[in-house]
Design goal:
13 helices, 20 strands, transmembrane, TIM Barrel, alpha/beta, hydrolase
Length: 705
């Protein structure tokens, strides 16, 4: 039974072994510009070698091939608040100016304007010049530092930013995409998006600098640790410098000008807080999330906020924060405690994004990126997903709440068809990659229909039977010929240099990575492959928008994964609508998808689940108690140098539902806990604090913003 029911009159993993060694790569250029402006804020295993691809023989081709291909053995809580970026895979957008983070007890509903305006200028503030607030192709846009550039959008879009009305949602990305203050008709209006993030694959230079450091720098845990020790080289401040110089406002302009209408924004849990010895940079990432929201609002782009890394790791892969320490979320002796902490972070993010100032921009929320169901368990994953849904809907209600995106966990897509009947606005996230599967010597031009054959029918089936589906990640990669794609210094299967498992060499990677010498024929082959993917997936987020140069070669070494590089050099379509219909009319889908009633029966999904893998009954496991002060996330608005608004605006207090008074899950006083990344094989410690009555949440003062 579909819970996000399609409107009437519709006219479709292989198991992931415990692969400790998988790591996916870096995502941001070392020398590009990334968030320099200021903010005002308050104090089956895929087998590409087959000649033919049936839409059903690999009915749910997903990112599970990550786990299928690689297998190798792995070679106390003090709230600090606000962290950096997601391990090896998350680099978000940011803001610059201090932000005051509060701990909340009681919250108040936030206000703010969300109306549009027909005016193109705003009166001068404090004797300043008349400031343009909106415009179309050829108009002048003022950046936060006061400089200007010419807005270029061949698709009828227009920008909007009024310092006197900073939460105005009047911008429109393209003529065919509803403005932010209009309704996007899911199922009819396609999601055409890109990810902004990933440290390793996107920003190899950050890791190349520490190639000779011991222990090896392979994820954000080790990167942040190495930077802290490198005070002479810039120390941990290098992370923020990267944020400032990687993605800028111009990127958001360019994304809209490329015909795209959505951004998937991966963020780590340390954008909310860090505890004990966690080395991640605090008090930085959220600033850049706020800047991303401001820029997206200005150019009419919607955001899918993606919780990419959580305590203990949901994958054991680098992009979950820490590599090769096991998947300790809902698995092993710390599985319950880590899950409790993760659910708190989901609640905190939901409270922020549902405020009226932000909910027209952040319209989708991926509550957990890529949980590995083979490690966690199907029943456990469904129970967690249902509890995350319940928590978000407690904040938002069922009327206009954010779309809740649930990653399929490397299961068959159809396994989710009957999940949580009648749930309101749920979408299943899946990541159909080809690059990590069997490596074969076939160019893009020989594989242009492969995405259609593998995915188109299954996606249409799921849209019909379940409701909204979104490909949260995909790329043009047809093999693993990319720097750090498999992990830092892990090599490549295709050329036989892969470190964890020696595999036969297929050939040289040069023809796949030497993009300055790509022929027009090769570029056209990549473009055809990209359009096949776009049409087959219907609603998608390309991984990723931008890749940084290697400090060794001086150029991008992961060309198949950079949308912008392909756009600039002719192998991505100038207009993504060119892809519509590429796979044929039989796979078309153009029917509104309606949210369910919200009348959900949670009984089949008990929380906590009846058992935790590799640990047993939750009643015997370490757990937290809800007595902590809850960190609230501050709001902010874009500013323009030299322009001082004449009125004060309400930026929200970070807490949409003032009735939500539960405390933060924290250690029980007097109990000791295992390390959150202790691993699944550790013995479950003796029960502490469970027999006695747990303390109730302590009342705290409303947050001061």
């Amino acid at each position: 039974m579909a819970h996000a029911n399609p409107a009437p009159y519709y006219d479709g993993y292989s198991q992931d072994p415990y692969r400790h060694g998988y790591s996916r790569g870096i995502d941001s250029p070392h020398n590009d510009s990334f968030f320099t402006n200021q903010y005002a804020s308050s104090s089956d295993q895929l087998n590409p070698g087959r000649e033919n691809y049936s839409g059903y023989e690999r009915s749910t081709l997903q990112m599970g091939e990550k786990g299928v291909i690689y297998a190798r053995k792995p070679s106390r809580r003090k709230p600090i608040i606000i962290g950096a970026i997601v391990v090896a895979i998350v680099v978000i957008a940011a803001i610059g100016v201090g932000v005051y983070f509060a701990r909340k007890g009681k919250g108040k509903d936030g206000g703010g304007s969300s109306s549009s305006s027909s005016s193109s200028t705003t009166p001068p503030a404090n004797g300043g010049v008349v400031q343009a607030v909106t415009g179309g192709d050829g108009s002048e846009v003022t950046l936060e530092d006061g400089t200007t550039f010419t807005y270029s959008n061949p698709f009828g879009g227009y920008w909007y930013h009024d310092p006197e009305d900073p939460f105005n949602n009047g911008a429109k990305a393209q003529s065919w995409t509803p403005a932010l203050n209009e309704t996007l008709n899911y199922g009819v209006d396609r999601i055409r998006g890109v990810n902004i993030g990933v440290l390793e694959k996107s920003s190899p230079a950050l890791f190349e600098k520490y190639a000779d450091v011991t222990p090896r720098v392979v994820d954000e845990w080790t990167l942040h640790s190495a930077m802290r020790a490198d005070t002479a080289g810039g120390g941990i401040d290098q992370i923020e410098e990267h944020y400032k110089t990687f993605i800028t406002e111009r990127d958001f302009h360019d994304i809209a000008a490329a015909g795209l209408n959505y951004i998937r924004l991966p963020i780590p849990y340390w954008a909310i807080e860090v505890r004990d010895n966690e080395p991640y940079l605090p008090n930085v990432a959220w600033k850049y999330v706020l800047k991303a929201i401001g820029w997206a609002r200005k150019y009419g782009l919607r955001i899918n906020l993606d919780l990419h890394a959580v305590p203990g790791s949901q994958t054991s892969w680098n992009h979950s924060g820490r590599l090769n320490k096991g998947a300790n979320m809902l698995n092993g002796p710390m599985g319950l405690a880590n899950a409790q902490r993760t659910l708190d972070y989901i609640r905190i993010l939901a409270e922020f994004i549902h405020q009226p100032q932000y909910r027209n921009v952040v319209t989708m929320f991926c509550v957990l990126n890529e949980p590995r169901e083979p490690l966690i368990g199907a029943e456990q994953l469904e129970s967690f997903s249902a509890e995350a849904y319940r928590i978000v809907r407690e904040v938002t209600g069922n009327e206009d709440g954010v779309w809740i995106s649930i990653h399929e966990g490397f299961r068959n897509w159809g396994d989710w068809d009957d999940f949580l009947p009648n749930a309101h606005r749920v979408t299943i996230d899946y990541h159909p990659y080809i690059a990590f599967g069997d490596q074969i010597d076939k160019d893009w031009s020989e594989r242009t229909k492969q995405p259609c054959d593998m995915w188109a029918q299954n996606v249409k089936d799921r849209l019909t039977k379940f409701g909204l589906m979104n490909a949260g990640e995909f790329s043009n990669g047809i093999n693993d010929c990319s720097l750090y794609l498999n992990g830092v210094e892990e090599g490549v299967q295709y050329d036989g240099t892969y470190v964890p498992n020696k595999v036969p060499r297929v050939g040289s990677c040069d023809k796949y990575t030497d993009w300055p010498n790509f022929t027009e024929e090769r570029k056209e082959g990549i473009k055809q492959f990209a359009m096949a993917s776009m049409d087959a997936l219907h609603n998608y987020f390309f991984w990723t928008w931008k890749i940084g140069n290697s400090s060794v070669s001086g150029k991008v070494e992961t060309p198949a994964w950079s949308y912008k590089l392909g756009l600039d050099n002719g192998w991505m379509p100038k207009d993504p609508r060119e892809a519509d219909g590429f796979c044929g009319d039989a796979f078309s889908f153009n029917t509104p998808i309606q949210g369910g009633s919200g009348d959900v029966n949670y009984a089949p999904y008990p929380w906590p689940p009846t058992s935790i893998k590799n640990a047993g009954s939750p009643s015997t496991m370490p757990r937290y108690t809800p007595t902590g002060a809850v960190p609230t996330l501050p709001g902010g608005t874009l500013t323009i140098s030299g322009v001082k608004p004449t009125k004060t605006v309400d930026i929200g207090n970070g807490w949409a539902n003032s009735n939500d008074q539960a405390g933060l899950m924290v250690p029980i006083e007097g109990c000791t806990y295992l390390d959150p990344w202790v691993g699944e094989s550790a013995a479950v410690p003796p029960v502490c604090g469970v027999a006695r009555r747990e303390a109730q949440p302590r009342p705290t003062q409303p947050p001061v913003l």
